[in-house]
Design goal:
This protein is mainly β and 320 residues long. The chain has a single domain (7-25, 66-314), classed as YVTN repeat-like/Quinoprotein amine dehydrogenase (Methylamine Dehydrogenase, Chain H, 7 Propeller), CATH 2.130.10.10. It has strands spanning 7-8, 14-15, 40-41, 54-55, 77-82, 88-93, 98-102, 119-124, 130-135, 140-144, 161-166, 173-177, 182-185, 202-207, 213-218, 223-227, 244-249, 256-260, 265-268, 286-291, 297-301, 306-309. The strands form seven sheets. The protein has a four-stranded antiparallel sheet, with no helix packed on it. Strands 2-16-15-14 form a four-stranded antiparallel sheet, with no helix packed on it. A hairpin with a 4-residue loop joins strand 9 and strand 10.
Amino acid sequence: MTGTWTRRFFGVTLAGMLAGAVVLTPSTAGAHGTCADHEYQTTDGSHDADGDGIGCEGLPPAPSSSPSAPAPGVPIGVGGAATKTGGGVWVGYTNGDVHAVGSAPNHGNAAGEALNAPMVGIAATADGGGYWLLGRDGGVFSYGNASFHGSTGAMTLNQPIVSLAADPKGRGYWFVAADGGIFSFGAPFHGSAGAVPLAQPVVGMAPTVTGAGYWLVARDGGIFSYGDAKFSGSTGNIVLNQPIVGMAADPDGRGYWFVAADGGVFSFDASFHGSGVGSISAGDSVVGMVAHPKGGYWLITAKGGVLAYGAAGGVSRVPA
């Protein structure tokens, strides 16, 4: 889990981020796991007892209508990755477990290993022959034909790592931290939001089909575009029912989708195939989304559920 690392904060292009335009209701840390798994970034110092810029100390209770994840101590889904053909999906969990859904083969997992930090992401290799698991500290676990290109597992980070994306050209991968800092390993660096004051923390990223750019999405749906990633819209000026938790790029190369914790899907220059609102069971919430290679997407829930839409419709999973 060690390796060389590079963090760069220049060449920033910010699009669609309207600071302070969105009012989000914070949820309790317990509602989404432990503070080590999901934290709420404050901008006014509220609920930040230790002064680290992350407020997970004594947050007010979440509204009763707010979706929630499994009880503390239960492995929580963190996201998914699709096979090359779209016939299957891998679902990653905070404890390093990986569940193979549909025709996705099992390449291994880190369940049972002593982890320095919970997992926060999973990404498949370009040919679908393997995948990486990513820890909150930037530690990388490689399976199948996924090669290790480096990690931040031995570094002290300014903010926790929140998402992982694989280079579509197979050169490596990128991490993004909650402050928008980008870490490039094998994959080309196109820019970072690490030096930009954020209204809300970054929660996800997606590369363009060429690998020559990527988008970062913040908790309010603000978008940061880099390289050949084009700005197609954001929810940065919309009051959301629930925060954005992830995004996926449309494989046709034109646009992208966001998903909120309640399963709401926002489409920008990408076809809308359906929403998970009303389909999420009590005590569960959406944690991310995965694009199908032929259009459509899956929504991944904290309990490991896989909700399928569009071309992804043939592969789904009901939470255990």
